[in-house]
Write a structure and sequence with these properties.
mainly alpha, Rubrerythrin, domain 2, RUBY_RBDX, 156 residues, 3 domains, three-stranded antiparallel sheet, 4 helices
Length: 156
Amino acid sequence: MEDAMRELSAQELGALCSNLQKACSKQMRSEEAALFGELASFYDQRREALPKAEYRMLLQLINDDLGRAYAEANEQASAVKDRGALRALVWGEKVTKLLKSLLVRYEKQQAGLLENTKVWVCEICGFVYVGEQPPEICPICKVPSFKIHAVQKEAV
């Protein structure tokens, strides 16, 4: 477990605080949500600029997650019997496999994959869907479609 202990990057801390902000909002804890939002902004402003991501680099990272990282995380969550973490890992792994599939499709179709269509993301589990309308229920975490939001084309 010692190798798992390391200092988090500004990008990781920003993501963590952003997730905690969302959790506090869902629990109607607006003061805490606002504070986590400030921390997320603080860390987001200090993160290192990443090189322009190419789909091959993303695919390599996804393959590493699927080949190693999820297995390690599942082992650690199982060891401490953390059911919540195990459930989140199941969702995360499913979404990561879907993202891999989208990247493979993108490699073949290029910009045609997103032409005349929309991209949707589930705010709960991260499920990504390409199509005119989101599914009525997220196939990963089963929330209704109002939790699945359109992504702006500029961000895609």
